[in-house]
Write a structure and sequence with these properties.
Blueprint: H1 2-21, H2 24-57, H3 59-64, H4 104-112, H5 114-130, H6 145-150, H7 172-203, H8 216-235, H9 246-266, H10 272-300, H11 303-313, H12 315-336
Helix pairs in contact: 2-5, 7-9, 7-10, 7-11, 7-12, 8-10, 9-10, 10-11
Amino acid sequence: MGGCEGSRWRLPNSEREETTSEPQAPLLDRQSAHWKNAVGFWLLGLCNNFSYVVMLSAAHDILRHERASGNQSHVDPSPMPIPHNSSSRFDCNSVSTAPSGAPQWGLFCGQLCPGCLFSLSVNQPVRYFLLLTSPESQDPGGEDEADTGARQPLIGTETSELKPGSSWNLSLQERWTVFKGLLCYIIPLVLVYFAEYFINQGLFELLFFRNTSLSHAQQYRWYQMLYQAGVFTSRSSLRCCRIRFIWVLALLQCLNLAFLLADVLLTFLPSIYMVFLIILYEGLLGGAAYVNTFHNIALETNDQHREFAMAAACISDTLGISLSGVLALPLHDFLCSLP
């Protein structure tokens, strides 16, 4: 009896192990898909921004080595810089580094880094098709309950039920209603991008400190590097910190612009390292505003509105960058004309 009883207990235990191990397989599959998607999207974002960031960081060097109008390449292989106005306290280039003021960026990348562009355009489809998991193969029940509960419609009107991703079926009236609901995110993000790109491409060149061991070009590169480091950190911090009120970030970024513009005009900051800290802080604000804006939109839109809402919000950065370029160009010329 004892032996039979003992064997009878072992059988249910083995069955219990089998039943508990079976649900682990889908869980492990979901975790594997989650990490593959996280790595895949991270690499896609990194490659997508790489060439753009390199062009922004190299803007000062490109303009400083610009040859005469007869040079078709616009790039001077000589290491000797040619200052535009040596009498100016800003040590200005002939053209501002503002986004709309350096059309030779594309030529620079096409001539000096064709291998980089080719590899980035090819390492992209490979990552997309080999790393990312198709939505059909993922368990729709694995969605975070907290995210699901936080979703609220941007508009209060009732609309007909549509399949997810069917934004093209929206009427013009529905699109306009959704767009008006997005203005609470679009306007702050436009201000954030306007302020930070006015600083980066309009003021960085003019924040020149002569009492350091760094050359003007080196100072500009450090500014860009610290800004991008701040953006990278804050864009990767969504799981640690989520911000609901984007207008607060916009206000703080505009204060950064006002402070640095005042320093350009009055030169009251005694050390370049204070500017380094401000620029790092600027990057943290810019990255946080971007990632939290689109995260909030994704949470607060219905399935049938989400695709259109995300696409419509993409005008924010383009509009902010364009406005900053338009205003930074005349400001550059005015300040560089001062003795």
